[in-house]
Amino acid sequence: MQLTSVIVIATLWALAHASDRLLKPARQHFLKAVHHVPSEAKLFCFAWTTYTQQDEGLIEEVRKQFSKCDGHKFFTDTESGAPSHASDVVMIRDLRQTKPRSDPQWMEGHNMVGLWPAWNYILMSDLVGKYDWYINLQMDHFLMPNKARQTIADWLHMAEGAKVGETQVDKPVMLTWGNTFLFNKKMVHLMQSKWDILGNVADESQGEAIGCPSFYQESTGTTAWPACPQDKVYPFMATYLNADVQSIGSSSCGELVKYKGGEELPEACLEMSMGSFRPSQILAAIKELSQMELQGNWDDALKQCKASPFKEFHDQTLCARLYKGTKVPVLHNLYTADEFGLARSILDHDDPKKGF
User: How high is the pLDDT of residue 350?
Assistant: First the structure.
C-alpha cells in the first residue's frame, strides 16, 4: 500500500473517532439527564406576528402545536389583516414606527415594539401565576411542548440541582434556546413587579427607536439601539434586573451550553437551515431526523447518513447535528405548512389522518 493511501486511511479513521469522542460525552450526558419522569409543567406559549404572507400560511400549523401547550396567544397589530375573530389572537393598537406599515422591512430588528405590548397584556391579566413557564417563540419555530417540558426539567436538574422531573426552582429563571425564550413563574412575577420601569418605551423624540423598551437604551457594548431585537433585549433584561435572575442558555440556536460543572446541557434548539440547504431539502432533513431517533449509536447514525440520497447528509458534522438533535424541543427555520405538517406527524408523533 502506498504511503499516501495509508495517510488518507489514518486521517479518515482519526476524524471518525474524533467525531465520536466529541459526540460521546454529550450523548452520554444527555441520556443521563433524561430520567423519563413525566413533567407536568403548565406552559403558556405565545408569538408576535406581523402576519406576512408566510406567517398567514403558517398560523394554522403553529396553532396546532401551540394547542399542545396549556394556554397560548398570538399577538399582532390591528393593521395586519389577521382574523380578529379568533379567540387566540390579540390585536395591538397604535404601533408606531418610522417606516410605513407597507414597507417590507417594517419592524425589522424591532421585534420588541410588538412584544412589549404583548407582555403588557400578559402582565396586566390573570395569565400571571396561572402557568409554570411562559414561552416566547417566533412563527418559524416548530415547538414540541412535551419535549419542552422534559428539557426544562433536565436543564433545571443538571444546572440548578432541581429534583428529577421538577420544573420549578425558588428563583426567577430565564432559559434561552436560540431565539426561543422561556420565563418561569417567578420571573414573570418579577417582571410584573418591575413593570413601572420595564414597561416604558421610547417616544417619537427617539427616532427609529420609537416603541423600543426604554431601559434597553442603557445597555452598553452589545447594544443594537435604536433597534430592539428580542435576542438582544431579553438577555440584557436579565442583566438589568441584576442578581435576581438566573439566566441559562444561548441565543445562538444549537450552540452548546455548559452548566456549573462545565459539562453540556441537552441541546434545546436545532437549526434546520443547515449549511447550504435549500428550502426543499428541509423536508428531507426532517425525515433524516426521524431516522436518527431509531439509531442506537453514532456508527449506526453515520451509516444512516451515508445512505441518504442527499449528499449534504454525508457530511459528518451535519450528521452529528442531526444525531444529537433527536430530543430537541424546538426546530428553527421551518418555512412552510408542509414542513410543519411533516414534523408534527413523524417527530411529534401525531396521526396526520386525525388532523390533530
Answer: 67
- For the segment 27-45, the average pLDDT, to the nearest whole number, is 60
Tell me the angle at which helices 298-306 and 279-292 cross, rounded to the nearest 10 degrees. 140
| 69 alpha-carbon distance from chain centroid | 15
Whole-angstrom Cα distance, residue 61 to residue 326?
21
Higher-pLDDT residue of 84, 306: 306
Residue 28 C-alpha cell reads as 452520554
For residue 226, whether the previous peptide bond is cis, meaning omega lies within 30 degrees of 0, is yes
Q: Which of 238, 275, 234 is nearest to 254 (CA)?
A: 275
The DSSP code for 258 is B
Least confident of 178-192, 258-272, 295-309: 258-272
Grid cell, residue 350, equals 401525531
CA–CA gap between residue 71 and residue 58 (Å, rounded): 19
Q: Please state the φ and ψ torsions of residue 260, each to the nearest 5 degrees.
A: -55, -35
At 90-118, the pLDDT tens digits run 999 888 889 998 898 898 999 999 999 99
The torsion region of residue 61 among left (phi > 0), alpha (psi -120 to 50) and beta comes to: alpha
Q: What 3-state class would DSSP assign to 46?
A: strand
Confidence of residue 35 (pLDDT cuts 50, 70, 90): very low
DSSP per residue over 78-125, as a string? TTS---TT-TTEEEEP----SS-TTSTTTTTT-HHHHHHHHHHHHHTS
C-beta separation of 175 from 249 below 8 A? yes
In the numeric block, which cell numbers belong to residue 98? 418610522
Give the chain's end-to-end CA distance (angstroms, integer): 59
Query: Are the C-beta atoms of 246 and 173 separated by less than 8 Å?
Result: yes
Averaged pLDDT, 46-65? 93
